[in-house]
Each structure stands twice: as C-alpha cells, then as structure tokens.
Amino acid sequence: MKILFISLGCDKNLVDSEVMLGLLTKHGYTLTDDETQADVIVINTCCFIHDAKEESINTILEMAQYKEQNLKALVVAGCLAERYKDEILKEIPEIDAVLGTTSYDSIVEAVNTALEENTGEHFEHYESIDYLPDNSEVERVVTTGNHMAYLKIAEGCSNHCTYCAIPKIQGPYISRKIEDIIEEAKRLADAGIKEIIVIAQDTTKYGIDLYGKPRLAELLTELCKIEGIEWIRFLYAYPESISDELIKVVKENDKICKYFDIPIQHISDKILKKMNRKSNGKSIKELIKKIRNEIPDVILRTTLIVGFPGEDKEDFEELYNFVKDA
Question: How far is Cα 34 from Cα 32, in angstroms, rounded to an integer?
Fold first, then answer.
C-alpha cells in the first residue's frame, strides 16, 4: 500500500511526521509523493495561527477529492485534530481517522483501521496531552536531506504566554531522558547526519521537570562527544533561562555554532507583562550585551510581535529603536 505524507507547521511537527513515517515503513507501507497513486494520505496538521489553520483545512479538503479516484483512506493527525477534536469529523466526514498531538505513535493502527472496508466507524485516538510517546527505538525517516536533522528534546510548554495556545494543544513541558536523546543522535550520526538542530518549544527549560534543574548545557556537551556530528545548534532559547553555563558551553565547544535563537517578542516592559513573558527590557538588553562580550562573532536571531493588544505608538517606537540599536 502506498502512503502520501503531508507535514504542515513547525519543525517539531516535522519530527513527529518522521517518526510516523518510520513506523509505517517498518510495517510494510511504501511512500509516494504522487497523490494520484496514494492508497492512503496522512496529513499532520498545524493550527498555531489563523493562516496555519486555514492551510490545514484547505489541504484536507484538497486531498479528500482523491477519494473519488484511488484514495482509500484519509488520516488527519496533529494540532488541528487535537484542538478541534469535537468538530473535525463532523465538519469533514471524508476523514477516516484522527490522531491527537500525543497519539502519533498509533499511526499504524490508525491506517490499518481506516483501510478496513465497511466498518462504518471513524478511528479516533486521543492520549492525554500530559503523555510522552516513547519513540526511543523508532528509526525515523529523515526528510531534511542527508546532512541535517532536527532533534526534539521535549514536548509541550508550560510558559503560558498569553498569545499562545501551545500548552492547550501540546500539553505541559515534558523532557525526554538524556540517554534516549543521545542514543537517537548517535543513530542519526551513524546514518551520515553531520548537523543536529536541537529543538523544543523552549530548549532552555530542558530537564527542569525531569531532573529538577536545567540540563541543556550538559546535553549539548554530551552531543559534542558524538563522532560524526560536526555542527550543533539549538533553537527557541528563552532569554530568562540562558545561563552563564550555557553561554560558556557554546563559547568553548567548536562543534556548537556560535548562534543564539532567542524569541524575545518585545522590549517594552508593559507589553512583555501583557504577554506574560518572564523577562523585561533591561534583562534582555543585558543578556545580549553579555553574549556579545563572551562570543564577539555570535549570530543572534529573534522573533518579535507588533500590534499586540494594548501596544501604543510609544511601545512600538521603543521596540523599533531597540532593533536598530541591538
């Protein structure tokens, strides 16, 4: 049976898709990129913002049209399926199976059930969003080329920024065991991967829930020991959790790119408070200065939100001038 897989949204979603692909190929399914040849289409959806939700719905409807031709089963997984679990099957009856955000490890059962003819039932599986799927033994199908792969170190988020629905869709922050992450990284290295990009909704919180303290610096140090891995970078490092230890590890390890991805969102204290962010303008400026002092050739990347409810011209100009200066 041929399966077409469509992965929408972020790189964390892409890792889930790669795990699902690994499980399906292990159970004898073959992959295709031609929707006219697919027996099954799986769509891993996103609904983080309005445009993402719209793209997910449009993609489902577009793929559902192939049921009039050769398509035997349409499976929808991920954030849209989780957030709209009460509506999705009712609104789009062409869907044969749905999986929530923490249920992607049931993809084989979902596809098998969806392919059973004349059952008259839709397959639904929603684990608690407090659940961490165990994918430590799964051989992912890496879709990012032969040189680079994402390495997801945690699920969910517990920051509860006021503009973000991730905790409601993905659940609280749950770290993976350090030994499981290292084993996965070794498998990737054995497969020829040279660059590892470490991801989570907030990488700097890694380990707090599991070990009682942040262990990102330690994890990065261990990843540097893996033979074959030449480049390591980490994304989504929240400013309030970037420690002196973490800066030192980046500075002293040649394998770690001199690159900090720090989503600050704003610089105005008023707006940061409305966003329920844990940092303030002064601490962000001091952090940037400290990183540049320690690593003069560092590259900084960030994300910003303008037009946030309550933002006035003064707040915007403060942000504008900060970006210019920083």
Answer: 6
